[in-house]
Batch of 2 targets.
Target 1
Amino acid sequence: MDNVTATRKEAASAVARPAPETTGRDAGAQQEIDGFSLVIEALKLNGLDTIFGLPGIPITDLTRKLQAAGMRVISFRHEQNAGYAASIAGFLTQKPGVCLTVSAPGFLNGLTALAHATTNCFPMILISGSSEREVVDLQQGDYEEMDQLAIAKPLAKAAFRVLHAEDIGVGVARAIRAALSGRPGGVYLDLPAKLFPQTVEAEAGRQSLIKVVDAAPRQIPAQDAVKRALDLLKSARRPLIILGKGAAYAQADADIRALIEKTGIPYLPMSMAKGLLPDTHEQSASAARSYVLPEADVVMLIGARLNWLLSNGKGKTWGAKTSKGWGGQKFVQVDISPQEADSNVRIDAPVVGDIGSCVAALNAGIDAGWQKPPSDWLSAIAERKGRNVAKMAETLAKNPSPMSFQSALNVVRDIVKANPDAVLVNEGANALDFTRSIVDMYQPRKRIDVGTWGIMGIGMGYSIAAAVVTGQQVIAVEGDSAFGFSGMETETICRYNLPVCVVIMNNNGVYRGDEVNPTGGRDPSPLVFVKDARYEKLMEAFGGVGVHVKTPDELRRAMEEAIRSKRPTLINAVIDEGGGTESGRITSLNPTAKSK
Ligand code: ADP
Ligand code: TPW
Ligand code: MG
C-alpha cells in the first residue's frame, strides 16, 4: 500500500465523521447516529467493555471512539497477540473476548487466534474492518482487498457481515450468542469500511440495538442420562474423574468440588483444570497419572475431550495391548456438545448439558448411602503418589549449576503457593511440561497455557489479558523459544504498566541449546538461538525491570520483588542447555528420520 493513499483515506473517513453532538446520548429525535457509535453502543449494551486490538484503516477512529466512550482499549504490537488476549479473556470471564483488527493482513494476523479460540472452546469475537465489497467481489484491487468472511468461515464457529448501520445491533447480538451458547467458540464479525460513517436516525438506530438475554442458556441434562451415569459410577471398582478446561470455564467450582468429595472418587485435572480443586487435594491423582489411566475401570470426563491430550482414550496409556486398542474402560462424558460422545471410543453414559446443571443433577442423585470407591484402589493410588512425590522432592531439592528446569521451577512453585491469586501463564516444551507437573495450583482458572493445539505464542497476549481482566498479578513461565513469538508485547506490558512477571527458562533453544550443525558449517542448528541472550534488556528498553539470574536464590529474590512492586518485570533465568528433551513429554508424537 502507499502511505499517501492511506493517509488520504483516513482523512476522508475523518471528514465523514459526524459532529460529536450528533452521536451524544442526549441527541434529539432529529439527530443522526453513525456506524461507529452504533457498534460502540451495541458492545456496551452487552457489557463488552474491553477491546484488544491494533488500529489502522478503517478502524482507527473506532479505537479512538471506543476509548472516548469509556471502554478499555488495549492496543497491541501484533494482532495475533491481541487475538490470543481476547480468546483467554473469554475463557476467564465467560464474556466473549473482543479483538479488533484492520482488513486483510491485520485480519489474517488475528485469524490464528480466532481458530485457536474455536479449537479450545473459548468465546471470542474477531471484529475486522474490511475493504469495499463491490471492489473486493470484482477483485479489482482495493486497498487490503480480501474476501475475509469466506476465509474466516471454516475456522470460526460462526461468521457474519453487517452491511447496513441499522443491522449493527443484530450483527453484534448474533456474534455474542454464537460465541457463548452451546460449546463456546470464535466468531468473526466483518464490518466494511463504508459501514462506519453511515448514519441513521438516532432514535431508530438506538432502538435497533439488542441487549442479548440469556446468551448461554442453561442446558439441563435428561434425568435418565444422569441416572445411567450414576449407575455406571456405582458399579465401578476403580473409578476416576477427569476434569478438563470446560469444567474450569463453566465456573461451577463449588458443585464440582462437592461431586468429587461426596463420591470420594480420585480425579485428574487436565492442564487448565488444575486448581479447580487445590492440586494438594488428597483425591488428586496427578502424581499417579500413569497408574490411574490404565487401571481405572470407569472414567467420568467432565469438560474434557478424549483427544490427543488423553491419547484419544485408547492405546497403551489406557492399558490396551496395542497402540490403537481399547483399554477396557467404560466412560461417562459430561459435555455441552451432543456430538462429542463416541468421537474416539464408545461413551457408555453421555450426559449432555452445561456442566453447572449436569454436576448439580449428579450431586442431587448422590445420597447418603453412596459407597466410596474400594479402599484397595484408593490406597494403591496413594502409594504411587507418595512414591512419585518423594522422588520429585529429591530432584527439586538439588541445586546444580547451571540451574536445572526443576531447581528453577521449585522456586516458582513456592512463589505460586505464597501467591495463589496470581495467574500463571505457561508455554514452551520442557518449560511447559516441567511447570505443569512441578507447580501446584490452588484456585480455579489460574493456570492458562498452550491449550488444545500446544500452540506457541500465547504468552504475552494471555499475560496482558489476564492482568487486565482479573487485576491480579501474572506470572508467565516461558520457554525462550516460546517467548520469542510474542516478545515485542513487553512494550505493551510496560505501556499499560501491568503487574506481569515474565520468567524465561533460557536454555538457548528449542528443547535444548546444545545442538550443532552436523555439516560443521557456519550456520547454527535450526534448534538453537544466540547463546546467553539477554532477554531481560527487552523489558528494560521500555522502562520495566530486567533481571538476569543464575541461581534459585537470585530467581526467588527477583520474583518476590516483582510481586511486591507489581512492576513489569522480565527475569532471564539461565537453565542448563542440555537439560531438556526433544518435544518435552510428547517425544512420541515426533516423527524422526531413520538415518540421522
Ligand atoms: P482439556 O483440553 O482440558 O481436556 P477440552 O478443550 O478438550 O479440555 O474439552 C473442553 C470440553 O468442555 C469441550 O468438549 C466443550 O464442549 C466442553 N464445554 C465447554 N464449556 C462447557 C460448559 N459450560 N458445559 C459443558 N461443557 C462445556
Ligand atoms: C505456533 C512447535 C513446540 S514447543 C516449541 C516449538 C517451536 C518451542 C520449545 O522451545 P522453548 O521450550 O519454548 O524454548 P524448551 O523449554 O523446551 O526449550 N509453532 C507454533 N506452535 C508450536 N507448537 C511450534 C511451532 C514447538
Ligand atoms: Mg528453550
Target 2
Amino acid sequence: MILSIESSCDDSAISITQIATKKLLFHKKISQEVDHSIYGGVVPELAARLHAEALPKILAQCEPYFQDLKAVAVTASPGLAVTLIEGVTLAKAVSVALDIPLIGVNHLIGHIYSLFIEKETLFPLTVLLVSGGHTQVMEVKSLTDITTVAKSMDDSFGESFDKVAKMMGLGYPGGPAIEKLAKKGERKKYDFTVPLLRTPKFAFSYSGLKNAVRLAVEKVEPDDYKDIAASFEHIATKHLTHKLKKYFQTHPPKNFAIVGGASANLYLRAQIQELLQPYKVNLLLSDLEYCSDNAAMIGRVAVEMYEKQMFTALEDLDITPKSNI
Ligand code: KG4
Ligand code: ZN
C-alpha cells in the first residue's frame, strides 16, 4: 500500500492505495473553501496553517495501515510554496518513521491520473486540463511521455470564473457559483469577444475576457448578473472549443479527456462532447468527486511510480512550486 498526501493549494487530503489492485482503500479530504471564501480567493498563509492542522488529523486515521505501507507519496510540484512544504514535510516524517521510500508527484500528472482511479490507464490521450492554476492541452503517451501543446498566456479558465465571481460578490470558489447563476441567464445577451480569435497560435488567454466582464458588471444591477454569467461561461468555453477545433484539423484525437477542478462544469462537458462528435473518439472524464484536488489521484500516479521504482531520496525531495509539464 502507498500513503499519498496532497496539499498544493486549499485541499488537505490523504489516501491509501493498494499497489497490486490500484484499489483506493482510504481517502479523506478537508477542504478550506469556506475559510477562503470571504477573501474571494486562496490566502496562502492561511491555507498553510489550515494544512498544518488538518493533515496530522487525517494521518492519525491512517494508523491501521501503517504496517502495510511500502512507500509514501506527496505532491511536490506545482502549487503554492507555503502549502506544498506542509505536505512534503509530513511525507518526509512518515518516510523516516516507517523507513519507507518517498515518491514526489507532479500535481498536473495527478489530475491526468484522476481518470484512472481504480482503473487501468488508456493511452494515447489528448488531455484538456482546466483548473484554478492551469489551462493546458497535453498529448499523453505514458507516465513519462507527456507534451504540453498549448497553455494559457495569463489567467486560467478556473481562475477567470473565480475572478468573475469575486466581482459579483459570489465568494470562492467561483466556478460552481457562476455555473449555477449562468443556468438562469441568457448566453447571447452579452457579445463578449472570443479571446485570440484572429491569431493562429494554439494558446489560451482569459485576462481580456475577465476585463470585459468587469466593465459589464460595473454597468448593471445585481439582478442582471445572471446574463453576464451565462454569456461569460459561453465565451470562456467557446474559446476552448474554438482552439481545440483548429488543433483537431491537424491532430485528430484518438482519446480525449477533460480533467481538473473546472472539468466538473457541465456546460463545458456538453460543448466538448459536441465538438468531439465528428471524431467518434472516447471522451474520458473523472468522477465528479475527483475533478477537484484530491489525494486519490496522487495515489494513482504513485502506484505507477512505485512500479517503476521512481523514488526520491529524503535529502533530494524538494518543492518546485512553478514546475510544469
Ligand atoms: O483542480 P482544482 O481543484 O485546483 C487547482 O489545481 O487549481 O481546481 C479549482 C478550480 C477553481 O478555480 C474553481 O473555481 C474551478 O476549478 N471550478 C470550476 C467549477 N468547479 C470548480 N470552474 C467552472 N465551473 C465549475 N463547475
Ligand atoms: Zn489541481
